[in-house]
Each structure stands twice: as structure tokens, then as C-alpha cells.
Amino acid sequence: MSEEQKRVLEQQLWNIANTLRGKMNADEFRDYILGFIFYKYLSEKMEIFANDILKQDKIKFREINSKMAEAKEFIEAIKEEALEKLGYFLKPEELFTEVAKRGNGDNTEEDLFDESKTNFILEDLQKILINIQLSTMGTDSEEDFDNLFEDMDLNSTKLGKTPEARNVIIAKVLAHLDKIDFKLESTELDVLGDAYEYLIAQFASGAGKKAGEFYTPQGVSKILAKIVTTGKQKLKSVYDPTCGSGSLLLRVAKEVKEVNNFYGQEMNRTTYNLARMNMILHGVHYRKFDIKQEDTLERPQHIEMQFEAVVANPPFSAKWSANPLFTSDDRFSQYGKLAPSSKADFAFVQHMIYHLAENGTMAIVLPHGALFRGGAEQHIRAYLIENKNFLDAVIGLPSNIFYGTSIPTAIMVYKKCRESSEDILFIDASNEFEKVKTQNILTEEHINKILETYRQRKELEKYSKRISLKEVIENNCNLNITKYLDTYEVKKDIDIKKLCSILNDIQKVTLDNDVKLKSVCNRLGVPFPDGYNLSLLKLYKQGILQKLLSQELRFKDENGKDFPKWDMKKLGAVTFKTGNKNKKSKKYPIYSINNKEGFLPQSEQFEGMDSNDRGYDISMYKIITKNTFAYNPARINVGSIGYSGELNNVIISSLYVCFKTTDEINDEYLMVYLKSNDFNKAVLRSVEGGVRSYLFYDNFSSIDLPVPFYKEQVEIANFINLIDNKIANIEIEMSNNLK
């Protein structure tokens, strides 16, 4: 499988998750979608393993049933081998594909939302998830599978108010996942593992502050992993005391040929389950990882063990007990002071150094304040620098790179046997980032610059410098990067002439639009919306649209006469369904739809995706031609609808509903109506479904549309577009993106 196909797999999985999660928070639905993907993985792995054993008997695992004379013998033999090699066992009838088929039969896409056409599988599915765990009882893998699916509560009302509604959404998830080939027999790339990581990252981006509990951004993760593996091809062990989803441990494994053993500890039970799933799904044998669930500082689970690589992104400035009894704990006793109870940052540092092997490297992410705060933290820093000389480097990172917090952070690198023992390397990468939407990210260029500077201990102007131990100690072990690096940038000359030209162009466009808008306002006898208050302008637009659709405001024709009376027609009478399938899998650009821009390239909708990505499963995508409407049936209530206009020959997911209009409807007028409060109210009366309210074309067709005379439709659309232009022009003037 190619990198290109891998990215498409990632997007397919995210599309399923994003479309089906309904009104649940991202972090709530995460446990379900990741759990079902994991169940599918276990099933496919089981089937491949069993088929290999049965090869000489010329029978497939799925073909074994209770009516066969040898069934019991086959099952027992396979179970024994599976528990030894895989660590778990599934019966043929418990395989993911079999359950998905039982749930959906031969249903069409829209049938999947019909409770009367979906077979009830909730009880069977719940038993299967329990049976996976029970199959490991008394074996070496028991701890690794213990209560692994406990967060997948199939009876939760968050999935649907009734068992039938919950069954509908679960059956649909299984049906969509069943269509995707994980290609587990391919050994070229850890494709599914990477896709799983992609999903975890996407859920993290939508989880806000909660994201920090389970995910380290990919750029930071890469830096930590590459630092602790510098100069090494193999690792005996890697340890993360706050391992979250296990992503950081697995990232370390990507940087070397082999890691013998993975160790981690995680306090949050749900995240602990996710970490174990992540390990297994990445092909880490159950005997090679040891993830524990406990509070790392209060109840460490890997006492007296040392590790060759130690990495962590602990919760920033978390509270801990700082119990005086810890002064006799081997992790803290030599320092003479404990980290303050209100800020556990250096308690994690002390814990990790205790577990660091003599030939090992440790890298930890801490909030910037940990570099210079006084009191006990200053005392601990001084001990590590003056007495032990363990601190190898301090790397300042950009602010706003972690989900849920914008605070600046730094990486501290420690070694017990340092090659450069006379100085400490300071790197200021705080300005090295790329802004993507509301988040700052580290690109490959930024990452490589940090790593090259660290590994070669380079000194670059305003970026990095080696500071002698003597100077650091003279500064009372204050590690504030700006104390040692002059990073002040002299501002470049501003091109006043160019700037004024841009401002004049914007002003001209704004004035031209205002002239046209005033003319329409005068014709209708309504006030012109002067001023620059965006909130009030949007309310003005809403009020005007209400009066237009209620016919309180009416346009007149060029002779000053009233246009004919309006008709009221069903949307199905003036639209028709379209969207041919891309059966030949042609390489059209892939688009998505959101509630702001409408149609937009997938690369803009989903970070990391390229609009030219092609895969092995785009035959079901719909081809969009000029003047086509498309909407997300699960999100049309929030305006997730687009109009292609001149956009031609692109493809979108089969989940979208596509249609065109008859000649009596002006497309721009219809778009205005579809974004109106009147339409939203009609949607609420017409939707159906369980977790999320869905509006398929049949229901859409039954909604009433006020139909003015065609020329009046054009007048209404033009008026609303002029107001929209005014709002957009003000947003441009207020932005800082003048270039």
C-alpha cells in the first residue's frame, strides 16, 4: 500500500467518524469509533492467522460451523495457537464482517437509518466484546485485554434514546467500516497504525483541553523521539511515565530498527485502554509492552527499573501531594527538596531521571515557567546542573502548539553521561512554526532545524548558543532562554506605497458595493446599513431576509409594477437528485463541504490531506458538475450545504446528497433560502434518525419553498449578496493579512 493510499484510508476513517458521531463530543465518540476499528483489526488479524493454520486442510476459518464434524477440533486447535501468538481468540461467527452483515443485510445507504430495516445486533456485539476479554483469562495476555472495551457503552443514551436508535447508528458504523480493506497482509507500511494515529490526532484537535490527557502533537512527538534515539539503531527499552494514548512510545519505535520493550504508566482509565489498543493495533506483541494504570508520582509501577530512552509530555503544572514521606523515596531523596504541591513539573523530572539508564537519554516537555521559577524548583534545577551536570539542552517551542492551551513550552534534555559536559545548548525555536487555522504547527523543516542544531550543537545567530556551565550557575540556574539568546528582530522597512495601494483597492471595492446596496435599499424604502459592526450587520441581513421571505418587502419590476404573486412549491417539484458515482475511479480532485465556504478542497477541510489524494476506494464517490447543490444530511441543520457554481468534475463522499434545480428556480435565490431561518425551522420538522437528525432527499423534497417570479428571485439574491459582500469587505479590512 502506498503513502497515497494510506492518506486516503485515514480520510475514509475520519469521514465515517465525523459524519456519524452526531451530537456527541469528539472525545466521547472517539471511544466508540476507535474501539470498533480495533475490533475490526482483531477480527481481520484472527482470520488471517486462522486461515494460515487451516491452509493444509483447504478450508477457511469463516466456513467452520457447528454442523461440521471437525468443527470443535479445528476451533480448539486454532484457539490454543491464537492465545499463544495473538493473545486473544474470536470464533468465526464473532468476526467483525459477520456481525456487520447480520446488522445490515442488503440494506441501501438510506435504509441504514430506518429502524425497521436494520437487524438488532446490540446484544450480540456486547457479548462478543466481552468474549474477547474472557478468551484471555488465565493467559499471559490477560492484563493487556482486561476490560479493554469498557468505555464502549452500547447502552448509552448518547448513542440514541432507544435501543433501536442506538442499533441503527452502530449498524451504520459497522457497515461503513466493513467496506474498508485494512490490508493487514501488506507488510510494507504500518498503514492501519498510522491511520489510527491520524484519527487520534483529529479527535484531539476537537477535544480542546481534554486533548492534553491523551495526545502529544505530532511535531513535538517527533522531536522528542528523534532526540532520545540519536546515535542509536536499537533500544532495549523506552518508557513514558504519562503515556496517554501511547503515541509517543510508538513514535520512538519509528526512529529505530527495533525496540525490545515498551513501558508506560497512565492515570486516566479511558486513556489507558486507548494506549493498550494502540499498542496491539501497531503490531506490538503483548509480551513486549507493559502499560500500567496508576498515578505515576503517587504510586509508581516500574520501581527500580531503568530505561534507555525516557520521554514524556506530562500535564503542565499539575498538582500532586508532595507528601513529606516522599523525602525518603529514592526518586526524590537526594535532592533535599520536593517539587511544590501546586506544580509537579520537576517531580516528573526527578521521577524520570531516577528511571533513566546510565547510557540513556531523556526528553520532557515542560511549561516555560519551569525554566526560571524560584523556590524548590530553583533548588532542584541547581542540583541537576551543579551537582549532577545532567542537563544537556533546553529547546524553546512556539506557543499554541498544544491542543487546549496556548502557553509557551520547552523541551529539556537530560543525560547521565554527557558528551559535551562543559556547556548547555540553548535553542530558541519559538518563532519557528506555521499557522494552520487556529493552531501553530511544526513543519518538517522546523523539526529538522531543531534536530540538526541539537545533534551538531550548532550555534546560529538568534537561534542557538552553547552556554558554559559557569555562566548558567552564576545566573542561579535560571534557564530562561532569552537570558542567553538575543532574539530581538529589527523590523523590516514597511512598503508604505504598496500598503496604501492595497488599502485604496479595498476601499474602492467597498464603496462600489455600498453604492449598489444603497440603490437597492432606496428602491425598497429600507435604511442603508452604515457602519462597521459585524454583529449588527449580520442581524440586519437576518431581518431583511425575514421581511423578504414573508413578503413584507417586495421588489417591483422595471416599470414600477408589482411582480406576480408567489407560488408555494415542494422542493422536490423544483429540484432533482443527481450525483453519478465515480465508477471508473477517475482521479478527480476530492472536495468536502462545510457550513462556511460550502464546497472546498479536502486539503483545506482536513489538515494533512492533499486534494489530489487518490485511493483504491473512490468508486462510490459522487461526481460534481457545474451548478450542483450538495449537503451533508447530518449537518444541514447547521448550514453544511454547498453550491458548485462553475466548479466542475470534482468528487465528494457518497454520504452527501446532491441535486440540481429546474429552470424556474434561480440557484442563488435557492441558496439564500437554504441558509435562512425559515428553512432551518422546516428542517427541524422533517429530520429523522437516532443520535443525529438526518435529512435525506425524500424528506428534503417534502419541504415547502416560496417561489417568487424568476426576476424577483434574482433581485432577492442580488440584494442578499450585496449585504454579504459588505460583511466580507469589512472582515478583510479588519484582518491583519494585508500583503
TrEMBL record:
Residues 9-176 form the N6 adenine-specific DNA methyltransferase N-terminal domain. It is an enzyme of class 2 (transferase). Residues 189-492 form the DNA methylase adenine-specific domain. One of its GO terms (molecular function) is N-methyltransferase activity. InterPro entries: D12N6_MeTrfase_N, DNA_Adenine_Mtase, DNA_methylase_A-5, Restrct_endonuc_T1M, Restrct_endonuc_typeI_TRD, Restrct_endonuc_typeI_TRD_sf, SAM-dependent_MTases_sf, T1MK-like_N_sf. Gene3D superfamilies: 1.20.1260.30, Bipartite methylase S protein, DNA methylase specificity domains, Vaccinia Virus protein VP39. Its EC number is 2.1.1.72. Keywords: DNA-binding, Methyltransferase, Restriction system, S-adenosyl-L-methionine, Transferase. Residues 575-733 form the Type I restriction modification DNA specificity domain. Belongs to the type-I restriction system S methylase family. This is site-specific DNA-methyltransferase (adenine-specific). It comes from Aquipluma nitroreducens. The lineage of its organism: Bacteria, Pseudomonadati, Bacteroidota, Bacteroidia, Marinilabiliales.
